[in-house]
C-alpha cells in the first residue's frame, strides 16, 4: 500500500471561497461576490504574501531556518508572518503602532513572535523606520512587504487565478482595500492579463479616517510595489461607511469580517449603484473576531 501524502499547513494557504451576497444589493442585475480570505490558516489575505516572502527568500539563499526576521506591520501581515515563521523555523520580530487591537497582538505572541510597539503618533511610518534601523544594526533581516516583489507575486500566482476561475472569467470589477498594495497589484495584474477590460478599483481612507488595513501614505512612504497605472480607479472610503457596512455584512449576510472588508464592500456597493449586469468581486481580507475588543460591532 502506498503511503498517503497528507497536506501540510502551507497547502491550506489560499483556495478560499468566493460567495455571492444574498441580501445586500446595488444597481441593476449585478452579481456581488466576496472572497473570504479569513479562511486562510492565520485568518487573513496576508497569509499568501507572508508565506511567499519567507519561502522565496529562503529559496534564493538569503535566509535560512533559525535566522531572525523583522517586519513593520499594522496587524494582519504580522499575524501571517508569525505563523509562517513558526511553520518554517524562523524567529520573528514585529514592530507595530501601539493602538492596534489586543486580539492582533495576542495572536502574534501566540505564534512566538517578539513584539515591539511604537507610538500612535509614529504610526506605521515610524515602525518602518525602526525596522530598517534594526536591520542596519544586524539584528535581523527586514522582509519589507512594502517593496518586496514576492508580495504582489503571491497574489499574481494565486488570488488572481482563483478569482478568474471561480467567476469563469466573467468578473468585470475587482475591488480591494489598499495598504501595502500587494493584493491589488498582484491580483489586478493577473486579471488584466486575462481581460484588459476588467476594472481594478482601490480603496483608501478619506482624510481623517482611521481604518485598519487601509492607508493613505505620505509620498515618501508610498510602497514601491505600488504602480498607479495598475489601478483604474481609487475611491475614498469614510470611517462611517466602512464600519456600517462591516456591521451589515455580519447582521444581514452572516459574514463576520473586519473594518477594511467593510470598506471594500462599501466601495463595491458605491460602484454597483451605477452599473448593470456587472460581476463585482471584493476582498474580505480577514475575520471580525480580531476587532471585538475595539467595540466596533456594538454600534
UniProtKB/TrEMBL annotation:
This is Cysteine synthase. One of its GO terms (biological process) is cysteine biosynthetic process from serine. InterPro entries: Cys_synth, Cys_Synth/Cystath_Beta-Synth, CysM, P-phosphate_BS, TrpB-like_PALP, TrpB-like_PALP_sf. The modification N6-(pyridoxal phosphate)lysine is found at residue 46. Residues 11-286 form the Tryptophan synthase beta chain-like PALP domain. Pyridoxal 5'-phosphate binds at residues 76, 179-183, 260. Its cofactor is pyridoxal 5'-phosphate. GO terms for molecular function: cysteine synthase activity. Pathway: Amino-acid biosynthesis; L-cysteine biosynthesis; L-cysteine from L-serine: step 2/2. The keyword Transferase applies. Its EC number is 2.5.1.47. Pfam families: PALP. Keywords: Amino-acid biosynthesis, Cysteine biosynthesis, Pyridoxal phosphate, Transferase. It comes from the Bacteria. Belongs to the cysteine synthase/cystathionine beta-synthase family. It catalyses: O-acetyl-L-serine + hydrogen sulfide = L-cysteine + acetate.
